[in-house]
Every structure is written in structure tokens, then in C-alpha cells.
Amino acid sequence: MSGKTLTRADLSEAVFRKIGLSRTESATLVEMVLEEVCETISSGEAVKISSFGSFLVRDKNERVGRNPKTGEEVPISPRKVTVFKPSNVLKERILEAHSRKNRADNDDTYVPAEVRAAE
């Protein structure tokens, strides 16, 4: 894993470069989209983005936890949590990118499938 994290600024810059909006318009667009997603999730509704995934709000029941320092049992109250479920399309892209990287790391003579098929 590269350790690089995609930020709001990175998203705004990508919109600026790829779509051609001004930097201010790009930042505003990204903020508006993220705000809409946050408002929808906060209201308890799911957000489904085709070929990307779904953000869902789930109820967690009360359970017994344990204080790691003392070993004492502590009740954890019921709560709502946000979960992300990647789409099958995104899962496939991740697997493909991971397997490509592994092949490239393990084989100095790696040739992409498209090139091998053309030979």
C-alpha cells in the first residue's frame, strides 16, 4: 500500500484538471457533493453510487465490552454506525490493480494481458 490518502483538495484539483472548471468552482462542486452525501447519511438513508458502492447506516445492539487495561466488563450502549459496502465493480478493480502490482513486483518481465493477447 502506498500510504497516499486522497483529500478534498485532491478531489477538487482532479475536477479542475479533468473537467476544466475553475479551482473555486471545482472546490465548491466537491463540497456540495460531499455535503449532500453527509446530509443523506445523517438522516439515516443509504447513499448508493453506481459502480462505486453504498454508504449505509446500521444499528448496533448493546453488548458487553472489556476494558483492555483492567479486564473489567463494560456495557457498550446501542448505537448507529456508518458502513461502506463496495460495489462488485469496485471490488474487481481493486483485485485487478492488486494482482497487476503483485505480478509486476514478482516478475521483471511482466507483460500486460492486452499485449500478450496481441502477440
Walk me through this protein's architecture.
This protein has four helices and five strands. With about 120 residues, it is of the alpha+beta class. The chain folds into two domains: about 45 residues, HU Protein, Chain A (Irregular), CATH 4.10.520; about 60 residues, IHF-like DNA-binding proteins (HU Protein, Chain A, Irregular). The strands form two sheets. Strands 1-2-5 form a three-stranded antiparallel sheet. A two-stranded antiparallel sheet has the order 3-4. Helix 1 crosses helix 2. The longest helix is centred in the N-terminal third of the chain and has 20 residues. The protein is extended, with a radius of gyration of 21 Å. One of its GO terms (biological process) is DNA recombination. This is Integration host factor subunit alpha. One of its GO terms (cellular component) is cytosol. GO terms for molecular function: DNA binding; structural constituent of chromatin.
Rg result: 21 Å
Q: Summarize the helix and strand pattern as letters.
A: HHEEEEEHH
**Average pLDDT reading:** 90
Per DSSP, what share of the residues sits in E-state strands of 2 or more residues? 15-25%
CATH homology superfamily name of the largest domain: IHF-like DNA-binding proteins
| CATH topology value of the largest domain | HU Protein, Chain A
Spatial order of the strands in the main sheet? 1-2-5
Distance between the termini: 32 Å
C-alpha geometry: extended
Contiguous runs where pLDDT drops below 50 for at least 5 residues: none
Overall number of domains: 2
Which structural class is indicated by helix and strand composition?
alpha+beta
Question: What oligomerization state is this entry in?
Answer: single chain
Helices, by number, come to 4
- CATH architecture term of the largest domain: Irregular
Keywords: DNA recombination, DNA-binding, Transcription, Transcription regulation, Translation regulation
Family: Belongs to the bacterial histone-like protein family.
InterPro entries: Hist_DNA-bd (IPR000119), Histone-like_DNA-bd_CS (IPR020816), IHF-like_DNA-bd_dom_sf (IPR010992), IHF_alpha (IPR005684)
Subunit structure: Heterodimer of an alpha and a beta chain.
